[in-house]
């Protein structure tokens, strides 16, 4: 999906089974907004989708446990708990018919998964093999630009301009 030097998806579970568990806390406003956005999104669905697909609303837990195990993300609280993370998805799906919802991006959280051992940018230019270290700085800056670009994509268009982007890099 992204041209991120050093990211190796095949590294996941390469040293044995991977199990990651995290607790995510939602505030009451985010829970209410996600449920409100779900209702607007559901109402926008074609009638045949509502009749033929099992569409489950998000739950309203103040704290959700997520687990990554064997390449799958689950929650011991059930599938509806994982749907609490779709607030931004609902906004993205509704932007075409409700552009006024763009401002809701700032009110909804997101998860940015970052592996501290990921090499931010290791592709060196041929001139950098002379050992002067210049390529390391350029490689680092390329990695930082990539992180900023990915972060901007993840948090939505509301962060693509203005001071927020300038702080990223």
How would you describe what is shown here?
The chain has 169 residues and is an alpha+beta fold. The protein has 2 domains: 1-112, no CATH class; 120-169. 37% of the residues lie in helices and 10% in strands. The protein is built from 6 helices and 3 strands; from the N terminus they run βααββαααα. It has helices at 28-44, 47-52, 79-82, 87-94, 134-155, 163-168; strands spanning 19-25, 63-69, 72-74. The protein has a 3-stranded antiparallel sheet with strand order 1-2-3. A hairpin with a 2-residue loop joins β2 and β3 (72-74). α1 (28-44) runs parallel beside α4. It is globular and about 45 Å long. Residues 116-130 and 157-169 have low confidence and may be disordered.
- Class per helix and strand makeup: alpha+beta
Give the count of structural domains: 2
Strands, total number: 3
* Average pLDDT score: 75
Main beta sheet strand tally, sense and closure = 3 strands, antiparallel
Q: What pattern of helices and strands is seen along the backbone?
A: EHHEEHHHH
Uncertain stretches of 5 or more adjacent residues: 116-130, 157-169
Shape summary:
globular
Strand order of the largest sheet: 1-2-3
Radius of gyration: 20 Å
Q: How many helices does DSSP assign?
A: 6
Beta-strand content: 5-15%
N-to-C span = 21 Å
Helix content: 25-40%
């Amino acid at each position: 999906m992204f041209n991120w030097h050093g990211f190796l998806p095949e590294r996941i579970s390469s040293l044995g089974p991977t199990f990651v568990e995290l607790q995510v806390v939602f505030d009451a406003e985010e829970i209410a907004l996600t449920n409100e956005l779900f209702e607007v999104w559901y109402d926008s669905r074609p009638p045949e989708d509502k009749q033929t697909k099992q569409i489950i609303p998000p739950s309203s837990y103040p704290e959700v446990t997520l687990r990554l195990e064997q390449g799958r993300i689950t929650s011991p609280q059930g599938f509806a708990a994982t749907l609490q993370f779709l607030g931004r998805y609902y906004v993205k799906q509704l932007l075409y018919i409700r552009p006024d919802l763009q401002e809701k991006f700032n009110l909804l959280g997101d998860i940015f998964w970052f592996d501290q051992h990921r090499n931010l940018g290791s592709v060196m230019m041929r001139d950098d093999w002379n050992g002067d270290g210049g390529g390391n700085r350029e490689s680092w800056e390329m990695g930082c630009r990539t992180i900023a670009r990915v972060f901007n994509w993840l948090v939505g268009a509301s962060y693509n301009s203005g001071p927020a982007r300038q702080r990223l890099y």
